[in-house]
Amino acid sequence: MAMGLQACAGTQPVPYSGISSSPRLQPNAQNDAGHMPYFYSARPAWREYSRVIIEPVVIYHGADNQFGDVTTEQQQELAAYMQKQFSQTLAERYQIVHQVSAGTLRIRLTLTGAETTTPVLGTFTRFDLAGGPYNVVQSIRGKQGSFTGSVSYAVEIFDASSQQLLEAYVSKQYPNALNIGASWGALNAAETGIDKGAEQLAERINPAH
Prior knowledge:
The chain is an alpha/beta fold. It has helices at residues 2-7, 72-90, 121-124, 131-141, 188-204, and strands spanning 26-27, 38-41, 51-54, 58-59, 95-96, 104-115, 150-159, 165-173. Strands 1, 2, 3, 4, 5, 6, 7 and 8 form an 8-stranded mixed β-sheet that branches. α2 runs parallel beside α5.
């Protein structure tokens, strides 16, 4: 049964050939590689920026997308949720603007994949004798739980004035393996992943760094 649960732990993101920054992405050797497997950075000084332009979230249609059986409607729902959550989270530290000026970042978000939570099984395996121990271990390791949804996306951050690529990465986010609330509903886990991804980005570009 454990092997079956492992097989349901989801797909891993790829560099996504249709993303403009893909040729610059390199495997991430840091301890956050599980959530950010590919990464590029020009080592920008984030303190030089105080404003952000957030482009409309793009849904990735390349052949290497990872939407599986996620419907077009569900993709659109996740993209809208992503736009709202990232904007609200970044607004806590940056001024959200629509015009280019000095000290402005331009952020491009591309939704590249998602997994829905398997009905009943996603919640049931938090408690049953086979899935319970597996998900405890996954929770400790910070890994994805069995039959649980996720979201994958690419982030590209530019200097809005020069259009220089400052940082780019591919990320996969999902709830803690023991998060029972996120196991209800097909998209709840993916939306929780978006919440975590927005917080991750806000911390990465924290002007205090």
